[in-house]
Design a protein that fits this description.
The complex is a heterotrimer. Chain A contains 11 helices and 2 strands, in the order ααααββααααααα. By secondary structure, chain A is mainly alpha-helical. Chain A has one domain: ABC transporter involved in vitamin B12 uptake, BtuC (Orthogonal Bundle). In chain A, strand 1 and strand 2 form a beta hairpin. Chain A is globular. Classes of the chains: A mainly alpha, B alpha/beta, C mainly alpha. At the A-C interface, helix 4, helix 9 and helix 11 of A face helix 6, helix 12 and helix 14 of C.
Chain lengths: 290, 241, 334
């Protein structure tokens, strides 16, 4: 096969990976701060994807244009979920929290199945078949826009955590829960804020992903798993790690799809997960805990 | 008398901090040996190395003639060293009896034999009447005695006690001291204890090692050590001497 | 030995158990065909729940990929039958070691490299998913198009080849569930059981009392996997068709854990009670919907999700401990 093909597939993989990274970023942020493993992550993204699909089929609104409103809706959803359901579970054993979110995930997936049916739905934008040519490189417009949008949203998130007061407060919470309480931070609210942000991230990522892939209710669990693979590979709790992990996985998936059969590409993600869990459980960017 | 436990030139650093600095001592078989020192002196780190929680950076630890430094905690226990924890860790949802049975099962294949032995140990530690209660429902002194019972049930030759007197009222403390002395006298059990409470140390120990900033500053008979200048300085400051 | 098994159990409870057993043995005589299939499902989940419970309830390891062992058991026995005409009971002799090996593999990876808690759960999910996608591409088992067993007849019951009326499967599963129950009870009372409970309570403290934690965790995983694979063999010969998409799917793994969690992790009756409550209610729901002419694929799963949610939030120890308190049974591990 010609070298250009590899290059194009690789670039496509990297761009898709950026969106994966944004999705995983939400998971990482939630875990890093609230210390809850959000097993309903992919399912939440599926909700966003279906909202986007519905808006597109009904009103022809481009998912990227609807990105902000949809992210806002998901933010509200995440905020409420945290305050109403998850908050009492912060002090419970780990597997209890996990199972709670497993239950939420099951309910979401199957409600979506009842509402929308099992068939795949997608979004055909006007630029759906466009592509850009830079030298030997041919880049799909959808992937380019999605990748760029992912970078913008991720940058906004970094900025929020680095330069705003609530952002700094959240980082303080993550670092030292008791300390945060002692200085009077409203931890419950900050946790809810964080979960909301994680949900917003995933909502935005969903809109972008919709440009590239179809949506069925079943993709929820698949994306949850993918998010876990990325976050563990990149380092649980590390924001840059999530993006790096996402790009790595996106690239691997694309290349595996090219070199082997496309349907087997998820096996490579799992292979990477097993390797990471065995040899570098803290991930690429994570800190080693004894 | 033979040395049951022999610690030689043992050190441990954590990043920049030297927690234990080339400490050596021997615990004679059948003796009661106490390690004392101000907070941060390195006592628990020393203990954890002997118990196998982490290996020493330098030096060797020999038990009953064989090297044990670097072995994991379960292997060390099987060699005959039992330990308690500074912050007690009984198995919360198990009954008092079951906690001790777990210890007794180490060297026994059958549960009924283990139960018989567990009952003996419980009687000795004055916990027999509470054997059906959940461990999590016990008071602190009872939980401390439960930990000792569980460690004893595994038939150790050496018992490591990590600040077992902390948080106990004088009467409770005297009770445990009496039980330990009885055990040592009747069964020849060797005991190595870390302790802050001097009353217990003086009542139990036949030899004392004093640590300060990770290094051994005095070792010997209790009366000698208590009068040692360096020891008094480390505890009370230079002015007190 | 029987004396030891029933030691500490109040006569009232033993009588109830006996009555329950008698009722179950007699059930096929009065049950309709539909009710029989529901009962078979209940027994299947009760059995698998016991097997899963060994890993989680006894040894404290959360496995969310148990469908792996069902699938391996099913596919091994089925493909041996299809390709070489080997009967299921002989196929079992191969299926169990295969599943046990898979369990040992996962256990080794996890425990040697200190993969615990949530990470362990994710590892189990990943391996099951790996198998799902893998078997989709495995031509020896017909990949994603499905492996089909030759369906003979229902006129007479062939126990050796597991061909026959559902009643035969009912009694096999009943026997399996009863034996599993007794086996688990014996395990809990044994030395291994004590060590498992210690490990579940506090791994570090267990280690300091001389327990080789790795060794005993491995035993739990291997036993659990081996027991589960038997259910897989039955699954294969009962449904007569296998698709990787279904057999290894994470929904199967979640169905497996629902019973024990709702019923009560770590207890002996939990998995059974959970299976009865969940499967019974779910089938009632499906039947009610069907009667009303509504076909909602996914309704059953939503129901399961809600049950799990309710149990986790209100009765985290499960329904059985709550029932025990209500009817005044002792709090021992029953």
């Amino acid at each position: 096969m010609p070298a250009e093909l590899y290059l194009n597939v690789a670039v496509g993989g990297v761009l898709t990976g950026l969106v994966y990274g944004l999705m995983a970023l939400g998971l990482s942020v939630i875990f890093g701060v609230v210390r809850v493993v959000n097993f309903a992550h992919g399912e939440m993204m599926t909700i966003a994807m279906y909202i986007a699909v519905t808006l597109f089929t009904a009103f022809h609104l481009d998912p990227l244009v609807m990105l902000v409103p949809i992210a806002a809706v998901m933010f509200a959803f995440g905020y409420v979920l945290q305050t109403r359901l998850i908050n009492p579970f912060i002090t419970r054993p780990e597997y209890s929290q996990f199972l709670l979110l497993v239950a939420v995930a099951i309910i979401i997936v199957n409600l979506l199945l009842i509402a929308f049916g099992p068939d795949a739905q997608n979004v055909q934008t006007s630029y759906g078949y466009d592509s850009f040519q830079i030298g030997p490189l041919i880049i799909d417009a959808t992937k380019l826009y999605a990748g760029l949008a992912a970078i913008v949203v991720a940058a906004a998130l970094f900025g929020f955590f680095q330069y705003t007061r609530p952002g700094t407060a959240i980082r303080a919470c993550a670092d030292n829960y008791t300390g945060a309480l002692v200085v009077g931070l409203d931890v419950k609210h900050l946790y809810a804020l964080t979960f909301g942000l994680g949900a917003a991230c995933v909502g935005a990522a969903g809109c972008m992903l919709l440009l590239i892939f179809d949506v069925t209710p079943a993709v929820g669990p698949a994306y949850t798993l993918l998010a876990f693979v990325i976050v563990i590979t990149g380092g649980l709790g590390s924001m840059p790690g999530a993006l790096i992990g996402g790009v790595l996985i996106g690239l691997t998936e694309a290349m595996a799809g090219l070199l082997f059969t496309p349907s087997a590409k998820s096996m490579f993600a799992f292979g990477i997960l097993v390797l990471v869990l065995l040899f570098r459980p803290q991930g690429i960017m994570g800190k080693k805990t004894s | 008398m033979n040395a049951l436990l022999s610690v030689s030139g043992v050190s441990k650093r954590f990043r920049g901090l030297v927690a234990v600095d080339r400490v050596s001592f021997e615990v004679p078989e059948g003796g009661i040996f106490a390690v004392i020192g101000p907070n941060g002196a390195g006592k628990t780190t020393l203990f954890n190395m002997i118990a196998g929680v982490f290996p020493p950076d330098t030096g060797t630890i020999t038990f009953a003639g064989e090297r044990i430094d670097g072995l994991p905690p379960d292997r060390i226990c099987r060699r005959g060293i039992g330990r308690t924890f500074q912050i007690v860790r009984p198995f919360p949802a198990l009954s008092v009896e079951d906690n001790v049975i777990v210890g007794a099962l180490l060297h026994r294949k059958r549960v009924d034999a283990a139960r018989v032995h567990a009952h003996e140990v419980l009687r000795r530690l004055d916990l027999y009447d509470k054997r059906g209660q959940r461990a999590s429902s016990l008071t602190l002194p009872d939980r401390k005695r439960l930990e000792v019972a569980r460690a004893l049930a595994s038939d150790p030759k050496l018992l490591l006690l990590d600040e077992v007197m902390a948080g106990l009222r004088p009467t409770e403390m005297d009770r445990i001291v009496a039980i330990l002395r009885e055990l040592n006298r009747e069964t020849g059990l060797t005991i190595l204890l870390i302790e802050h409470v001097m009353r217990a140390v003086m009542a139990l120990a036949s030899r004392i090692l004093v640590l300060h900033h990770g290094a051994a500053i005095a070792e010997g008979l209790p009366e000698q050590v208590m009068r040692d200048r360096a020891v008094i300085e480390s505890y009370l400051g230079v002015e007190a001497v | 030995m029987i004396a030891r098994l029933i030691e500490g159990v109040p006569r009232r409870a033993l009588a109830l158990l006996g009555a329950l057993l008698a009722a179950l043995v007699a059930a096929p005589l009065v049950a309709s065909d539909y009710l029989l299939t529901v009962l078979i499902l209940i027994l299947y989940f009760a059995y698998i729940g016991q097997a899963w419970n060994i890993m989680m309830g006894f040894a404290g390891q959360l496995s969310l990929g148990h469908a792996l062992y069902v699938g391996l058991g099913a596919y091994t026995a089925a493909s041996l039958n299809v390709h070489f005409g080997i009967g299921p009971w002989l196929g079992l002799l191969v299926a169990v070691p295969v599943a046990a090996l898979a369990g040992a593999f996962i256990g080794f990876l996890a425990f040697r490299f200190r993969v615990a808690g949530v990470y362990f759960a994710i590892l189990t999910i990943a391996v099951a998913e790996f198998a799902r996608v893998g078997f989709d591409h495995l031509s020896w088992t017909s990949g994603s198009s499905g492996l089909f067993l030759p369906v003979a007849q229902f006129t007479h019951n062939d126990l050796w080849h597991l061909r026959g009326h559902p009643v035969m499967f009912y009694y096999i599963l009943l026997a399996a569930a009863v034996l599993a129950f007794i086996f688990c009870r014996a395990l809990l009372q044994s030395r291994v059981g004590y060590f498992w409970r210690a490990i579940r309570e506090d791994e570090e403290a267990a280690r300091s009392t001389g327990i080789d934690v790795f060794h005993y965790k491995m035993i739990a995983v291997v036993i659990s996997a081996a027991m589960t694979s038997f259910a897989g063999v039955i699954y294969a010969f009962y449904y007569n068709n296998l698709f990787p998409e279904q057999v290894f799917h994470i929904s199967r793994s979640i169905e497996i854990i629902l019973g024990p969690i709702v019923g009560g992790i770590g207890t002996l009756f939990g998995p059974i009670l959970g299976a009865v409550v969940l499967t019974g209610l779910a089938e009632t729901l499906t039947a009610a919907l069907a009667a009303a002419g509504i076909d909602l694929p996914g309704a059953k799963q939503v129901f399961y999700g809600i049950c799990l949610l309710l149990v986790i939030t209100t009765l985290p120890d499960g329904v059985w401990p709550w029932v025990c308190k209500r009817i005044g049974l002792a709090e021992r591990n029953k």
